[in-house]
Write a structure and sequence with these properties.
The protein has 158 residues and is of the alpha+beta class. Helices cover 27% and strands 20% of the residues. The protein has helices spanning 3-13, 15-31, 96-109; strands at residues 45-54, 57-65, 72-78, 121-122, 128-131. The radius of gyration is 16 Å and the shape is globular.
């Protein structure tokens, strides 16, 4: 059996365990003292995070503070997209959950938001959410993206 099929079976058999495995690996990577962002040398700080299963899909939620902007960010991400990297190109001898966690940390959480800013949704706690719907924010509270109309926006690295 090839790796994507094994991973797909693993997700279908226990989507909550799959989400929990990714969550554990993601938190371990973000807490690694050797992991620093370019220019600032700071790290992303996790405020809170959790996993769940929504309509059969394993889902990760991460609320974090990024050193490059002045607002708290939330990411909601499905974890069963086995047709996308890295799950279709597994790293030999690396658990696919750890590989996906690394991809989420590197490509989603540590990266700048770019055009994502325009689609972010604030919740009642002031967390600006992005990622896969439904976002844990009240749709009626959609407002200007951070950085628009006097809100705090991304800080440029010094």
């Amino acid at each position: 059996m090839d790796a994507p099929v094994e991973t797909s079976t693993r997700i279908q058999d226990d989507p909550q365990q799959w989400a929990d495995d990714i969550h554990t690996a993601l938190l371990r990577q973000l807490a690694d003292p050797a992991r620093h962002l370019p220019v600032t040398g700071n790290q992303v700080q996790v405020v809170r995070s959790w996993t769940g299963v929504h309509d059969g899909h394993p889902v990760l939620h991460v609320v974090y503070r990024h050193p490059w902007w002045d607002f708290t960010t939330g990411l909601r991400r499905y974890l069963d997209e086995v047709e996308h990297y890295p799950l279709n190109l597994p790293t030999p001898d690396v658990d696919p959950a750890v590989d996906l966690a690394d991809d989420i940390v590197t490509s989603d959480i540590e990266e700048t938001l770019g055009s994502v800013l325009e689609s972010m949704v604030p919740d009642e706690d002031g967390v600006w959410w992005w990622g896969h719907p439904p976002l844990p924010a009240d749709e009626r509270r959609r407002g200007p993206a951070p950085g628009a109309n006097g809100r705090s926006g991304p800080r440029r690295p010094r």
